[in-house]
Amino acid sequence: MRGRTTRVGRVFHPGEDGYDAERTGFNLAVDHRPAYVVSAAGSEDIVRAVGQAVDRGLAVGVLATGHGASVAAGPDAVLITTRRMTDVTVDPGARTARVSAGARWEHVIEACAPHGLAPLSGSSPHVGAVGYTLGGGAGLLGRRYGFAADHVHGLDLVTADARPRTVTADTAPALFWALRGAGKGNFGVVTAMEIALFPIARLYGGGLYFPAEACADALHAWAAWTGSGDLPDEMASSVLLMTYPDVPWVPAPLRGRHVTHVRVAWSGPPAEAEPLLAPLRAVGHPLLDTISELPYREVGSIHHEPTEAAAAQDRGSLLTGLPPAAVDAVLAGAGPAARAPFVAELRHFGGAYARPPRVPNAVGHRSAAFSLYTGADPAAGAAADALHEAVRPWGTGGAFVNFLGVGDAEAARLSTAFAPEDYTRLTELKRTYDPENVFRVNHNIPPSGTPVP
């Protein structure tokens, strides 16, 4: 797994040109101000950075794209940025890809497309592939194939002793278990991963954008459709509720309007898609209908998520189901009458997500049927919190690591992402591989025996 590089990284100190740009990620709600930033060009830079941080008594944080916000690195920490490590190597015969630490999904998708292959990427190609996968990874092929973490073959890792390791099910089975689902910065710095690819060249997908007056009908129809148990695993879908700003970059039919955006992605034979979509199309006349056959390299057009940096208070809940009363709770909190100052998204889980992987990992709450995600300006976080409280009767009581936000830094909150016995095992592994909790600039798993504030 280990590659070689002759590139040399850079170090940025406060006040120097480039420091502010290097410490800033996609989510501007996280204001990193570390003692210094190491811009890594290869694994050797990361080995040196971790060793020097430990020698100086500094914590270590990692920043690739900064989509998965957690806690800010302060003056007692060094921040390692991996955004320049974007190499992707595809083995079409083995249907695998080696992905470097800073590669975005768009880099991986483009490298795979000429071979008719696809990774288990997220809904946004702009997101970092490694962090997404270490947090579980739930994308548009997940109901068919499972979590992205289920299909990792190996990981290159720099641990707290500044040693590079290749971690697989054979070389370090316990650590391999932990990294896949709970490895976002807690057990070391992942410098590369090897993942499985799948023979998906095209999808049938896109969005139905319904106006405010059709919101209730559309959301109830989608909940009944997904909750019926009749959908094949090849059908992925979600719904976004939001009020679009009245600005030129928004398509004219959506400007200034509350929209119910139903997104679908069918990875089976295209001819079989439209009969399955009939209950959604029966809702009424959408403002826009973008559903069509498209190459997988255009998968990002389905959710059409923003790519410009912004400050966001993210939060996620997992749901056991979405009965009519739960739909009404979502409508009351995020429907057009609520004038909600945030976006709300429901995703359909089930299918392969619920099935255990061939090689066990730390991903929790596989029985969840849906997720509820909210993204708000930090000043409007309380309004979004109220929606999560309203759906609590249908919640699993757990969280999904990739949907934890800047307000979820407490260990008690992170622990809900795992079964209790798995969380205990994770703290014990943390004590083995990082007893001083060097890697704590994250949603932190403390070493067992450590007092929790």
TrEMBL record:
Cofactor(s), names only, from the UniProt record: FAD
UniProt xrefs under Gene3D superfamilies: 3.30.465.10, 3.40.462.20, Uridine Diphospho-n-acetylenolpyruvylglucosamine Reductase, domain 2
FAD-binding PCMH-type domain segment(s): 30-200
InterPro entries associated with the record: BBE, FAD-bd_PCMH, FAD-bd_PCMH-like_sf, FAD-bd_PCMH_sub1, FAD-bd_PCMH_sub2, FAD-linked_Oxidoreductase, Oxid_FAD_bind_N, Oxy_OxRdtase_FAD_BS
Record's keyword terms, sorted: FAD, Flavoprotein, Oxidoreductase
Gene Ontology terms for molecular function: FAD binding; oxidoreductase activity
Pfam families: BBE (PF08031), FAD_binding_4 (PF01565)
SUPFAM superfamilies registered for this protein in UniProt: FAD-binding/transporter-associated domain-like
Protein family per UniProt: Belongs to the oxygen-dependent FAD-linked oxidoreductase family.
Official protein name in the record: FAD-binding PCMH-type domain-containing protein
Species name: Streptomyces marincola
